[in-house]
Amino acid sequence: MNPKSTKQTLGRVVKSTEMPDLARDFSPAQLAKAINAKRTGMKLTLVDVAAALSISKPTLVKIEKGDTNVKLSNILKVMEYLGLSFSIISDKPSTTHTGEISDDEWY
User: Fold this and answer.
1) What tens digit of pLDDT does each residue of 95-107 get?
2) For 98, phi and psi rounded to 5 degrees?
3) Domains observed in the chain
4) Distance of alpha carbon 27 from the chain centroid
5) Is the pTM of this model over 0.85?
């Protein structure tokens, strides 16, 4: 038997997952799915990312499951490493202290 034909991989193959619809309202589950989809799309294992960021694999698993008891700093570290970002958008119009909308706030 040819040794090249029986080549084995030393680790698991990362299977890509689908990115969630990011136009929908934010939820921890949606963020978790986006992080998982980005990591798997980049073919990075949990161990790769955890080691690169000096966080534990169980912490990364919690992040990818949408656990709300994970430190925000760890979530932001993972997002930055994967090239993800998010914006905070208010669904209420900004008002001045008088309760009126200033001319600078129209768009």
Assistant:
1) 555 555 555 555 4
2) -90, -5
3) 26-82 (1.10.260.40)
4) 12
5) no
